[in-house]
Design a protein that fits this description.
Layout lengths: L8 H9 L7 H12 L30 H10 L2 H4 L19 H19 L3 H10 L8 H16 L5 H12 L6 H8 L9 E2 L7 H14 L1 H4 L7 H24 L16 H17 L5 E2 L2 H19 L4 H25 L6 H15 L11 H11 L2 H11 L15
Antiparallel strand pairs: 1-2
């Protein structure tokens, strides 16, 4: 039965069937006509309008490396990008090699968003940059780790941690990559936890306002984060693509991990829901957004995304993800790790891991740009920078090394179901 207890599976499938899988003949004809006549979407983000903090010679666009292509390359060559491969999407202690990691997730987001963006005549290079960089600030252990780090950081400082806000810090501060405002804004505003039917633009136009927005997120938490809107249509497309990318894929992973059966979900599609949402959501969004100054979806698709996401929370994230397995152990490990790293900084213990594995490496990267890591100014932020940068495996190994009382679940490759 559906979360609406009076709605049967048959009725639910009937509702889903009303969401088209392909574009209407009328829109296909219009798109073909537009392309034949050289139509350019007047609302796309143009490379010529890209804004950077610094006018570096090496960052200037060229005929063969436009502004947002440079952003993509900067992101790919950031050490934090390599760590995606070791970070959880949902299932932390199941080592089935077919389960998604954060690295696959960002590629799926970029791919889905590029498909939609191409149909809408948007800047696909900007879409790719936002898609690949949007989760660079994610903690180990996915959203469970994010909550743990936020809890201890907030208890110490009164400030809030959000992975999307930290993605901006990783790119803009820790690695000093001088990315465009448009890419950083897309990373900041991507948060797929806040679904909307219509995405309208913020009107943001400069770094001063952007920096105030970032600071408000640290200071005000959900009050600020919940009101974020992208400055570009490209950022809007990535934001909705984030949800499309995980809502079906996480179901496939839950089934592959042996936690749920194919028939466990209300719609009865099991892992095939991923294919369903990819095709139907993309067609619906293109149909309702083509040529417009906003990104929009039908009411039917919006309600279906909300329903499917709520079901994932009930049956996966709060039941069979890490929250249901070892939440107390993880929370304690984050608390101990935070306290130990903070003490090492305050004691100026340069033999500690936070010095050797984090501060020195960041300083080496920033030295290429004539910048320094001001880690002493805010030790709490430096601790957050370090912990958020860790992969699942690094965190678990370091925690058990430093705190023998911590016992994480044994990672299992073989599923007995």
């Amino acid at each position: 039965m559906s979360s609406d207890s009076h709605v049967s599976r048959t009725e639910l499938r009937g509702r889903m069937a009303r969401i088209p899988e392909v574009l209407s003949d009328e829109l296909v004809e219009r798109m073909a006509h537009d392309r034949a006549h050289g139509w350019v979407n007047p609302f796309r983000a143009e490379d010529a309008d890209a804004i950077r903090r610094e006018d570096r010679e090496g960052d200037r666009a060229s005929i063969w490396r436009p502004a947002y292509v440079r952003d993509v390359e900067k992101i790919l060559h950031t050490p934090a990008y390599n760590r995606y491969a070791g970070k959880t999407q949902v299932f932390s202690f199941r080592s089935n090699d077919d389960l998604s990691r954060r690295g696959l997730h960002v590629q799926l987001v970029a791919r889905i968003a590029r498909d939609i963006g191409y149909a809408l005549g948007l800047n696909c290079d900007l879409i790719e940059a936002i898609g690949l960089g949007h989760d660079l600030g994610h903690t180990p252990f996915g959203h469970a780790g994010e909550r743990c780090l936020n809890d201890v950081y907030h208890a110490h400082t009164g400030r809030w941690f959000f992975h999307n806000v930290h993605s901006v810090r990783v790119l803009d501060v820790l690695y000093g990559r001088n990315l465009t405002l448009q890419t950083l804004d897309g990373a900041l505003t991507h948060n797929g936890e806040y679904e909307q039917r219509v995405f309208e633009l913020s009107g943001l136009s400069g770094f001063d306002e952007f920096d105030r927005t970032v600071e408000a997120c640290y200071r005000d938490g959900d009050i600020a984060v919940g009101h974020l809107r992208p400055m570009t249509l490209e950022g809007c497309v990535v934001r909705i693509s984030d949800i499309i990318a995980y809502v079906g894929r996480d179901r496939q992973d839950a089934i592959a991990a042996g936690l749920l059966d194919e028939d466990a979900f209300e719609d009865g599609l099991g892992g095939a829901y991923n294919s369903w949402i990819l095709s139907h959501a993309s067609a619906d969004i293109i149909e309702h957004s083509y040529g417009r100054d906003r990104i929009e979806m039908s009411e039917e698709l919006f309600e279906e995304i909300r329903r499917a996401k709520a079901e994932n929370y009930a049956k996966i994230y709060r039941a069979s993800g890490i929250e249901g397995e070892s939440a107390a152990v993880l929370a304690r490990a984050f608390e101990l790790m935070y306290e130990r790293c903070l003490a090492d900084l305050l004691d100026r213990d340069e033999s500690s891991y936070i010095y050797r594995h984090h501060i020195l490496r960041i300083e080496q990267h920033l030295a290429h740009y004539g910048r320094t890591y001001e880690w002493e100014r805010d030790p709490h932020q430096t601790v957050v920078d370090y912990i958020a940068s860790m992969s699942d495996g690094y965190f678990a190994e370091l925690a058990t090394k430093l705190f023998p009382e911590i016992r994480f679940p044994r990672r299992t490759y073989i599923n007995e179901r």
